[in-house]
Specification:
2 copies of one chain form a homodimer.
Chain A lengths: L7 E4 L5 H9 L7 H17 L1 H12 L10 E2 L1 H10 L2 H25 L3 E4 L5 E8 L2 E5 L8 H14 L3 E5 L9 H10 L3 E3 L3 H10 L9 E3 L4 H10 L4 E2 L7 E6 L5 H12 L6 E6 L2 H14 L6 H11 L1 E4 L3 H11 L3 E5 L3 H4 L8 E4 L5 H6 L25 E8 L2 H17 L3 H9 L5
Parallel strand pairs in A: 1-12, 5-6, 5-8, 6-7, 8-9, 10-11, 10-13, 11-12, 13-14
Antiparallel strand pairs in A: 2-7, 3-4, 4-15
């Protein structure tokens, strides 16, 4: 049987468009009660028994035979050796990517992550002090989805922010260590690493054990157990986000070679069967050409089955009335990756309000952004770009308000505070302000 | 019986200090299983039955007798009338506070909330576009802790960010509307308001109903049910934070009138019995003087019983070896409010790494900051200042990465992406980058 990938064809002029579109987008992150229970038990156990519990779960789930938790620490020498064992092309590529990612995040820090203050007319100083987190944990998935690029994307912004210690955890099922992941940790400047994963690794980072230091925030993607554990420890530590399946939306005006668009849709679909690839285009004939390229290119793809399952199950090629309408629909989706595959991308960009990352013009394939353009590839999924942002330096910093009221300022602010505090029935608040007023 | 407030006396030179200090700080936000179940049911019910469910829960919990949900909408005319009904002093105070809060948040937006981009040497454009959220919900507690100042502190940063619609919900137990809260909503520019509260209000905002529009993010404090509901809808919408009891830490060098410090400790303690007030000071005689002022001032306070319960149960007066050590201990606490009550506050400020807001110098009482200095009074509690920030304009904005790779840039980035993608076994990613390379 020939493998076929036929994303759902939709047209905005159809009466059933809204319903079909909504059904296609549907994805539920609802918590699974069984997973919740397992995770709650693991967290409680690690909180009580520390190292011992982490060791037991790791040996059991990852089929290891470690005697103590310290055995599972990755030494700096091991990270360095992994880097040095790579072919030169991979070493160079990792370093080139790291350089660009670092330089982008340095610009980000400069643009939005510096302390600021000013004095108002009565001499009162107001501002914010921006400081790095002391210690963060980054979760790196092991097994089939072990991505060294994710190590760079999590660790480098933390490093640029000035985080004191970056602790990496990465599960190694059956003891298999991914040398590229270890090498990326070396390049990115990870402080310490442990070959532990799952809810037990999240618990160790959140609560601390004799061997694993407690961190202030945990970032990085993981499976359903890791996601459930992160959600539960949120509050004890910070977390980045709960990631859903990856998505791409391509807005095409018909000027890009259709094989480029087909391959860009594939590059999302190859992640996993739940990944979502959508094309929006006002030119029906162009959509046919993209479908023809999908048919032509699919057989040669090593991950053809995953691509086909993703495109058949969740993909869509949507014919719109215009590029303007395509932009409107894109805003409803709030996609993780948004390619504006157009000869005039800057005409459409101002219309695009919600997206994790916007790739402008035909040469900007998502894959260039994923690896090495510089911006972060950890992006809000499942429509959460409506209210959240790419992982960035700001995720590894926090702000403290600064207020220094002068004696003159206290005379101006005091009466306002007194009136409002009394309105709220908080007499000590009022009295504290009143005490700072000059006795006349 | 005379009411007595005696915060625990500790000294860092005591052998048992660490244990006593840790015990005093302990506060657990652990989820209550019974509350979790009730909240899960309410959320599911509102998701299914919409308006009808919200109406039923509101009538039941707030003892109302509304026939339809639209009846519970607050009209703009009602908000305006509430404002106009206030005494002139309250109107002026609300407007003065709003003006200062707005001006501070405008500075914040300018300092860290603007879009930016640059071109690198190969012509590739990199940057971030900062955009406001479309629609946010702000939760305002009703009943005994109805604070108009919180309306300003939540709505104004949203407004400054450029949020399109600000939806306020505020429960009105037994139908009692707090006129100051309504007036604050008028001053702050709330778009629509509903007199609903609890988990049902959070659900209505997260999922939308026929009457209440779905929002992108929900901010604002609430009781345990509201907190549990916010935690559960996180992911469907954004949330700000899960607030614990309020805290103040005063770092004193002994130069501030001790009655000012005593009243500042009271102003936190009067919020509720779980609020925490801590003094750190290297001068034992000064600590005695503060305790004497506590004894002298307490009887006259209208909320003396709450203050005494809070100080006796959770307060502490800690004698430190030095101001430097006091700063170190403050960093371990990561307090919500941190007063540097010293004649040289700028000597100590650089040593303070973790705090929601830092109040510098004796004239900067926390109450001035709470109401009208300008910075936000919604601050991270329970040590979460280690990894989170005051509510701000940035909470009502999100970022989209911008990448525009030139043809020349694609030649530079392509080989790096190809190498890394192949290293990760993602051939479609590699192929998408390769297609953009010039055929030679």
């Amino acid at each position: 049987m020939t493998l076929k990938a036929a994303p759902l064809r939709l047209s905005t002029t159809s009466a059933s468009f809204d319903a079909e579109f909504k059904a296609r987008l549907h994805w539920s992150a609802d918590a699974d009660a069984a997973i919740e229970k397992v995770v709650a038990d693991i967290l409680a156990d690690v909180q009580t028994r520390g190292d011992e519990a982490v060791l037991e779960y790791t040996n059991r789930f990852d089929k290891l035979d470690a005697k103590t938790l310290p055995e599972l620490e990755l030494t700096q020498a091991e990270l360095k050796a992994a880097f040095e064992s790579l072919p030169a092309a991979q070493r160079d590529a990792l370093e080139a990517a790291a350089r660009r990612v670092r330089s982008y995040h340095e610009a980000q820090k400069k643009a939005s992550g510096e302390s600021w203050s000013y004095r108002d007319t009565d001499g009162t100083l107001l501002g914010q002090k921006v400081t790095p987190l002391d210690r963060v944990g980054i979760y790196v998935p092991g097994g089939k989805a072990a991505y060294p690029s994710s190590v760079l994307m999590n660790a480098i912004p933390a490093h640029v922010a000035g985080v004191g210690e970056i602790i990496m955890v990465v599960p190694t099922p059956k003891g298999e260590k991914n040398q590229l992941v270890l090498a990326a940790a070396y390049v990115a400047g990870v402080t310490r690493g442990f070959t532990i994963g799952g809810a037990q690794a999240v618990a160790a980072l959140a609560y601390g054990t004799a061997t694993v230091p407690a961190v202030d925030k945990i970032t990085g993607p993981g499976n359903a157990y890791v996601a459930a554990a992160k959600r539960r420890v949120f509050g004890t530590v910070g977390i980045d986000m709960i990631a859903g399946p990856s998505e791409i939306l391509v807005l095409a005006d018909g000027t890009t070679p259709p094989e480029w668009v087909a391959m860009d849709l594939f590059s999302q679909a190859e992640h996993d069967e739940l990944a979502q690839s959508i094309l929006l285009c006002p030119d029906a004939a162009y959509i046919d050409r993209v479908q023809a390229e999908i048919d032509r290119l699919l057989p040669a793809m090593p991950r053809a089955e995953i691509i086909a399952a993703s495109l058949n199950g969740r993909g869509a090629l949507i014919h719109t009335k215009s590029m303007e309408e395509a932009c409107e629909i894109s805003n409803r989706i709030a996609p993780e990756h948004l390619e504006v595959s157009s000869s005039e991308p800057n005409r459409w960009e101002p219309l695009l309000r919600h997206a994790g990352a916007i790739f402008l013009g035909a040469f900007t394939s998502e894959s260039l952004g994923d690896y090495c353009a510089g911006p972060n590839h950890v992006l809000p999924t499942s429509g959460t770009a409506r209210f959240s942002s790419p992982l960035g330096v700001y995720d590894f910093q926090k702000r403290s308000s600064l207020i220094e009221v002068s004696e003159a300022g206290a005379q101006v602010l005091g009466p306002v505070a007194v009136t409002l505090a009394e309105g709220e029935g908080l007499q000590a608040h009022a009295e504290a302000a009143r005490m700072r007023l000059r006795k006349i």
